[in-house]
User: What shape does this take?
Amino acid sequence: MTVKELIAELQKFENQDLLVVVDGYEGGLDDITKVKRVKMLKNFNTGRKGDVFYWGIHEEIDDRTDYDRSNERVDAVYLPR
Assistant: This one.
């Protein structure tokens, strides 16, 4: 989903004072704590982690990332809990 698509979806809500939440770690719901711009490798973990349901398919670029992979590098908006 792009920022433009997210804004369009959120604008559909009549009440603009609704809370926005994300999945909790193992259950429930959590607040978003900030909005952060990140650089990530798109689809980096597809097949790499055995496609386990609890591991995201993209990977933020940081000191631990294996840069030998040729995955597409993109900017993204991250909404952490």
Remarks:
- The first strand starts at residue 21 and ends at 23.
- The chain is about 10% helix and 25% strand.
- The longest helix spans residues 3-10.
